[in-house]
Amino acid sequence: MADAASRLTALAAELLGEPLPVRIRAWDGSESGPPGAPTLVLRHRRALRRLLWKPGELGLARSWVAGEIDVDGDLYAALDALASLLWERGADAKDRVHPVRDPKVRAFAGGLLRLAGPWPPPPPPTEEIRRRAGTLHTRRRDKEAISHHYDVGNDFYALVLGPSMVYSCAYWQDGATLEEAQRDKLDLVCRKLAIKEGDRLLDVGCGWGSMAIHAAREFGARVTGVTLSAEQAAFARKRIAEEGLTDRIEIRVQDYRDVRDGPYDAVSSIGMAEHVGSVRFREYADDLYALLKPGGRLLNHQIARRPEKDESAYHVDDFIDAYVFPDGELAPVGRTVATLEEAGFETRDVEAIREHYALTLRRWVTNLEKDWKEAVRATSPGRARVWRLYMAASALSFEHNKIGVNQILAVRPREDGAAAMPLRAREWTASANG
To answer: pTM here?
Structure first.
């Protein structure tokens, strides 16, 4: 087993037809690869067994979460190199090569098998959600999925998100802090919704209450916030009481499909629609339309993916589905706009802010790394590793235009067809914070 790193880099070079773009440090202390490149640290050969059992993203993710693989150096540079190697190259290869018949793939797998040690592979880390069967996006299944992601622990999220406790894309100006950028995002949403004193706002997926508090405190709204996370609701209610806003804000542990006390003047949905799923998105649009009064506004803030040439080939990211957002789905922004309009909405504004999310995610990663020991104590080593990987990889995806995020302002028209919008629709940009 001596010099495992050289054997691995040689196997990879033979498969790829070019040198591996990262350096490898193996469990036996050996190192190989281009000097100065990001170093992929294989702490145990169990990682190879995981890769053989689940080639590609899921095998790597299991090894990462279990602490069997790490990165020494710039995590973003390492992920960039691995993305071009495994995901982009792998996606092209799937259309050309049958892995079992390809001699290079067989030789690579055989070499890994000799290095990997005795079978079988270890079980998946406990942080991985078990495979689900049955109908997608039932109320029960959605509640379980939300709990998996959001009931990780309020103390953990406080370390990552900072004092704002906002878990969605901030809105950046040069020199802003994370808290200032999140405040400006909440302010922007309120201005787009034209919230004024006494208006009823429904905040769908209200999280830890930040949007509700901002709308009530700064704009005088009466807010109903709904979430499926009991931990979020408890945290939000405590914050609201401390702000003295219990007479203006109600937080419910409730599915948005069960809200029946409309009409509302405005609805905010910030970072929630990604959980709805394609099979339920028209129902989501119909429900929010029914909850708004004629002339009422919806602000739908949602991550979008690039459209596929063949949409039937789209599949949910294995790592994200298993460890981060079970049953979550991304849709192209055009499909989202079309579905909202099919439900009766008139789309009045779409603002793409993907670069802002890359900045936000990098700040969250910095917060997590700065308080790593406390974050591990607040949840688990594996869970902290999941969040570090997914946030860093997501930042790169936004930077490289693999995914985006958009604020869609839609209006329920009045019966006479009027949308109750000013002639200069973007009046919100006049604010000093905008």
So the answer is: 0.91
